[in-house]
Design goal:
82% helix, 160 residues, mainly alpha
Length: 160
């Protein structure tokens, strides 16, 4: 009887050891699966971070380029504003900066004023053509050429 009880206890201990080993194997397998899933998540997160860093870098470069273009446009607007101011003063002042009345001058020298206005009108029409995309002529490409009506438009087009 003692040997039957001992053998039952031994069987119980062996069964408990086998069940413990199976449970430990099942637990370790679960941990490995969780570890593999965590490693995949880390890789996904790292690739997402790298992509976001690339996007941030590109955005910073774009912002720098936008700032440079804005500065260039501000310069162009400034030059054009100066040209507009010059055009406003053109009829009221002579080259020396003295006041003049274009109407009085037109009465005294109508041929001269007609020639000046015709040439200025032709220059202004050429400015519109160039601003609309027309190619510059060889004369306009030379550094000595100056269109008094729109020097910045011709200069900016010849630099392109």
């Amino acid at each position: 009887m003692i040997s039957g009880v001992t053998s039952t206890i031994k069987m119980g201990i062996i069964a408990a050891a086998v069940m413990g080993a199976v449970a430990a194997f099942w637990y370790v397998s679960g941990l490995r699966a969780d570890l593999q899933q965590s490693q995949q998540n880390v890789q996904t997160l790292e690739s997402s971070v790298n992509e976001q860093m690339a996007v941030i870098t590109q955005m910073q470069e774009d912002q720098k380029q936008i700032a440079e273009i804005r500065t260039q446009l501000d310069d162009v607007v400034q030059r054009q504003q100066e040209e507009i101011d010059d055009l406003r003063d053109r009829f009221d002042q002579n080259a020396a900066g003295e006041d003049r009345d274009i109407g009085v001058l037109a009465l005294k020298k109508p041929g001269l004023i007609q020639k000046i206005i015709t040439n200025a009108s032709l220059n202004a029409m050429r400015c519109v053509e160039v601003a609309s995309g027309s190619e510059l002529t060889e004369e306009e490409r030379s550094e000595s050429f100056v269109n008094q009506e729109c020097p910045s438009i011709i200069a900016n087009t010849s630099n392109d």
